[in-house]
Amino acid sequence: MIMSNRVVSTASLYAFIFLVNSSLFLTLLFLPLMTSASTGEPCLVAPSKPSTFGHVVNVENEGQLQAAIGNLSDDITLVLAPGIYELSHSLYIKRNNVTILGGTGNCDDVVLVGNGMNNADYGDVPHGVWVNSVGFKIAHLTIRDVYQHTIIFNGGAESPQVYNVKLLNSGQQFIKSNPIEFGDGVDNGRVEYTIMEYTAAPTNHTNNSGYTNGVDVHAGKGWVIRNSLFKNFHTPDTARFLWNPAILMWNGASGTVAEGNIFIDVDRAIAYGLDDKPGNDHFGGIIRNNMIYYSPGLYSDFRRNNSDAAILVWDSPQSKVFHNTILTNGNLNDAVQLRFSHAGVEVKNNLMDRPVRSRDGVGFVSAGNFLQAVPEMFVAPASGRLHLKDSALEVIDKVTQLSEVIVDFDGQSRPALVSDIGADELLPGGDFSIGTF
Question: pLDDT digits over 193-245, tens only?
Fold first, then answer.
């Protein structure tokens, strides 16, 4: 299933609602957007508000929040009133079917704050939320300024959901899912309508400079990461870690779906697999309808010469890379890169300005890709919104519909016989009123 997404920039006056029905048809609406209270990009306007589940506990301040966490039972929903919650302890979730919900539905209204992503004196707040249980859900709030992970899933966690959450300035991974062992981890996670962003420079822990990812999943099966924004995951040339994927699925992970996301100025956008391992670092899955943008001049000559690609399929057989739009603006060597002896990898109908390359020389299926993308093809490229202009005739109506990608980034149906290359399907007369960014 593909859902639509439209992420708005900080200066934008618009947010977007996506209404989903059972036939996968989505309708885009514009709503005025209030000024963000938690900084960073404005919250995404998600199509629904998760309902409360089980026993409901209303929380109005940090003291009440810690008391509620200390007295958790299974099947409970904590509904947080608007406010800034300066955490005195990480929130440890060890009971099943726990939901933490911002009460207004706007993720800017409830803000959980740590002691600083680079503050080694973090006290009892190394993480924002630590989960060891089944069926955890978190929605409609912000977590920021945490020394290690804003959200971490460990052994015992299963089927977690992160929905319409804003995560800012994490000292390590924003969402971390640890393995039990190779190929055995937290399965069936969902991350939707979520912002992961560094509002200034990325993390610079002593001896760990730049050790970060947006979503880092070890050994998980069946994860879905969609309709989310990843921004400013670009470490300096002096960092110890230079090439952090915003989405990293590895150590025996499989069946990941990454779709409808926007990536702005990230060192790598998506990696299915990273190392050459017995049993495959990742297997299967699909990467579709994503928009990936790099600002001109983002990389130094050193960084550019040593770069690989925006999308990596490394030791991930049977993976599919379909209908993505990638504008590197000269910062990367490749747009998509394959490595470590793949089998059955397909790369189709992508709109890019750099090539697709197999470093091992292993064959893969390639069709319908266009490699001469330029900023002039897009309505608002600098915002990462790589929607086509009607003058982009080189890529409009050039391919046939793929059965795996029947709608585009916005949830618009792709015509069966004459679809557009890339993430966006241009409607007659244009997609939307661009407004002022």
Answer: 999 999 999 999 988 899 999 999 999 999 999 999 999 999 999 999 999 99
- Beta carbons of 44 and 15 less than 8 angstroms apart: yes
Question: How far apart are alpha carbons 402 and 409 in whole angstroms?
Answer: 14
Structural domain boundaries of the chain? Answer: 14-388
Short-list 146, 149, 230, CA closest to 191: 230
Asked whether 202 and 170 are in contact (CB, 8 A), the reply is no
Q: Is the dihedral of CA 57, 60, 62, 64 positive or negative?
A: negative
Pick the CATH number of 14-388 from 2.60.40, 1.10.3430, 2.160.20, 3.40.710: 2.160.20
Residue with token string 């996506």: 18
Q: Beta-strand (E) ranges in 36-178?
A: 55-59, 76-80, 83-86, 91-93, 98-102, 110-113, 129-131, 137-146, 151-153, 161-170, 175-177
The pTM of this model reads 0.90
- How far apart are the C-alpha atoms of 166 and 6, rounded to whole Å? 15
259 is written with which tokens? Answer: 């779709």
